[in-house]
Amino acid sequence: MASSAYIAASANRFNHVADSSDEGLVAFGTSKFVSLWTVDNEYDYGVSQTLPGHGGAVTCWSLVRTIQAHSKPISAVTLFRDTLVTGASDSLVKVWEIGHDEKGILLEEKQTLSLQKRYPLTLALGLLPQSSVYVLAIGGTNTDVQLWLRSDDTFVQNAKLAGHEDWIRALDFHQVDEIQPLVLASGSQDGNIRLWNIEPIVSAVPSAELDSPGDDLLDAFEASLAEVAEGEEGGRQISLKRHVLTTKSSAGGTQQYSVTFDALLVGHEAGITSLKWRPSTQGSSPALLSTSTDSSVILWAPSSALSHMENGPSLWINYQRFGDVGGQRLGGFVGGLWGSSGGRLLAWGWSGGWRHWKCLDPSKGPGSEVWNEVGAITGHSGPVRGLDWSPNGDYLISTGLDQTTRIHGGIPVSDPSAAPSWHELSRPQIHGYDLLNVVFIDSLKFASIADEKVVRVFEAPRSFVEVLENLKVSQFSEEQHQRPAGASVPALGLSNKAVGDGSHQALSIWELDVSRRPFEGELASSTLWPEAEKIFGHGYESITLGISNSRRFIATACKSTNAEHAVVRIYDTQLFRSFGHPLAGHVLTVTRIAFSPDDKLALTVSRDRTWRLFELQNDTGFVPVAADKSHGRIIWDCAWAPEGDFFATASRDKTVKIWQRSADGNASWSAVETIKTPEAATAVAISSTGSQRRRLAVGLENGHILVYSCPVNNAREWKLESTVDSRVAHVDHIHRLSWRPKTGGGSTQLASCSDDGTLRILNVQFDTDQTYPGN
Which of 113, 16, 21 is CA-nearest to residue 74? Predict the structure, then answer.
């Protein structure tokens, strides 16, 4: 059986992609998954589970049943009681009623609203004050907020609220109790937030008098506000006109409601991406959370709540501001929400990473609240293509098409019997090209390749060493502490440069609080590693990277359509110079390179459906000794057994072949076993289980992982021990598998990465396994 020890997952780039419960459970879309994260967990284990099922990226969620709701991607969703409303880029808004049948939850389509070639971007649903009438607010690719009322089970458009100057991106209703007005908050790409009050018209005013001369005067006043001379500041419309909503009353007559503009909240410097009212509690004051592409999160409250004054006019004030000022502004914040009944704030950014703030005492009210940032979860925001364990297995490095390299480590918790809490601890490389693979040269040095012709080598700064030691993730010698404090990228440069030397403190901007794990803002700016070397040699963009078990050699290959460029180049890791001649023989791109445990053999597999074996001779270079073309399709991956007596190849032809040297002792190798898989085999890794059985993990194109085992002395008898499906594993092409190194063998933790954008560490346990320390 297999269980998750760690899931690195980021939030999709949509503002409705997450929601939270009062109990502290946060659910958000990650690629094609819905991820679950419990923020109130004592040890903060991050994402605990991913729910598969979607065939595309999750944009908004409220999963009650899987149905084909729209012909084009869904862009907005809102749920209130038994009514679900969805909006999509087919310019339709659909209303659904939630019921139950013998199969469970039932969704019945009740109505379809057409927006006439306008796309809905946000929806909000609530109840009119002192009524059971539903009100639906729709915002989209125009500047008006549409209000629809449900009468006789049918929504009818009643009003359009004008004032915003750009698309409407966020809507949210708030009502303290049935007596108070219903407040609608609307946020736009114009950077402004507007509050609208909806309340019943108590007096029996004839309908002819509702459009009184006073409203005509207001219309003239609003028109004068819009007349701004060329070059002058302004242009924001202040609409004071009262809109009237009419609906049927419970007594059989009609009931009218007024909608009036109440406040204009100005504080963000760029477009609003999300709005959330704080969950109401008895006697609590209203508070509004807003996020923006200006990289800020603002909390708004009426001045009466801040000064504890009950009488007099109340202005809305931004009483708390979080995020970055003049810092990382790429996309800013995409969305935000309240957690734990208003005691926590959570926001996710353009790259999918989360920021998390906790209120020390929410009961004190907005005027006395103290907020502190705490750790959150992170993950790649695109397909993850490469991973590698540090030599001693203390931490893991990953790289992906989001152009970042990330290091993850397990932090011991206070309970010695509990599993460590895994988190991202460093983001050493933020590149301008898609990153494809990465390997550790030693515990504080790694090499990576991207969609370019260069291999780049990085060395850890002192801040990384101190963070890992203080968090008890790993231990380093005194000599390993003597290194630059950090790294930065010059304004006009492309390479990470060292900041500070080994004996002096770095500039304060690069100082990290090494007593805790870095937050998302620090990971994105202050955990870079200095670049130590560049290695050139290939004529086309790099495609794969391998390293020998002794860490003496690294091997690279590039994209190729002919034999001239389908070569493998080997470099020593001391001087980073070419070692021997390029390894020729393939005619198409080499997809993977693996060295035997004693480093005497180099195995390569290719798109040309062949594998080739090269042997080290006289310590001067590698020469070809064997080759085979038994696979019918591209060979994606290869791996050696830790004992070096056999290797495995994984192919798109849905087979994994086991190869052993011929019994006569010559250089030929033959397939002793062919394992058939239900889908194309894309990744493979082999681990010894000590004195009992050896284990083979196979990653498939559909994201599943198969685990086989064989006796230590017989590589011909493979038994399927476990199938890890998408409930625990992945839902897309698996690129790499790697067993965690362990002294004496017998690793039971398996790292995997996939096109689905997640990195995972799985605990793989059988009845015969011993407990792995640190699981």
Answer: 16
- Alpha carbon of 514 to those of 430, 483, 765: distances in Å? 21, 16, 34
Q: What is the DSSP string of 48-74?
A: EEEE---SS---S---S------SS-E
* Angle of CA points 697, 699, 700, to nearest 5°: 140
Residue listed under structure tokens 């019945």: 108
> What's the CA gap between 138 and 158, in Å, rounded?
12
> Counting runs of H as helices and runs of E as strands, what totals does the chain give?
5, 54
Instruction: Report how far residue 725's alpha carbon sits from residue 721's, in angstroms, rounded to the nearest whole number.
Output: 13
Hey, what are 24's tokens?
A: 């502290």
* CA dist., res. 266 & res. 254, Å (int): 37
- 3-state SS assignment for residue 293: coil
The enclosing H or E element of 37 equals strand 33-38
167 SS3 class: coil
> Which single residue is written with the structure tokens 């700016």?
525
Q: What is the pLDDT of residue 289?
A: 96
- Give dist(CA 51, CA 131) in Å, integer: 38
Kindly report, residue by residue over 116-172, the tens digit of the pLDDT: 889 999 999 999 988 889 999 999 999 999 999 997 889 999 999 999 999 999 999
Q: Is the pLDDT of residue 558 over 60?
A: yes
What 3-state class would DSSP assign to 531? strand
User: Which among 771, 769, 762 has a CA at the least distance from the CA of 8?
Assistant: 762
Cβ–Cβ < 8 Å for 8, 730:
no
Give the 3-state secondary structure of residue 327: coil
Q: Which amino acid is at 197?
A: N
Question: What type of residue sits at position 318?
Answer: N
Rounded distance, CA 15 to CA 78, Å?
13
Using CA atoms, how far residue 11 sits from 51, 238, 376, 523, in Å, is 14, 36, 12, 16
- In sequence order, what DSSP letters do the residues of 377-414 get, joined into one string? ----SS-EEEEEE-TTSSEEEEEETTSEEEEEEEEPPS
Q: How many whole angstroms separate alpha carbon 684 and alpha carbon 681?
A: 8
Q: Do the Cβ atoms of 557 and 587 come closer than 8 Å?
A: no
Q: How many CB atoms lie within 10 A of CB 186?
A: 25
Cα dihedral 45, 48, 54, 57 in deg (nearest 10): 0
Question: How many C-beta neighbours within 10 Å does residue 666 have?
Answer: 10
- In this structure, what token pair is assigned to residue 698? 């196979």
HEC-encoded secondary structure of 541-559: CEEEEEECCCCCEEEEEEC
Between 521 and 55, the more confident residue is 521
Which string of DSSP letters, residue by residue, matches 212-233? -HHHHHHHHHHHHHH---TT-S
Residue 364 in 3-state DSSP?
helix
User: 387, 398 in Cβ contact below 8 A?
Assistant: yes
Residue 486 is predicted with a pLDDT of 86
Residues 6+ apart with CB under 8 A from 469: 475, 476
CA distance 122 to 125: 11
- Quote the CA–CA distance of 754 and 737 in Å, as a whole number: 9
* Helix, coil or strand: residue 340: helix
Q: How far is CA 365 from CA 23, 73, 135, 173, 536, in A?
A: 20, 41, 30, 21, 60
Give strand pairing partners of 199: 258
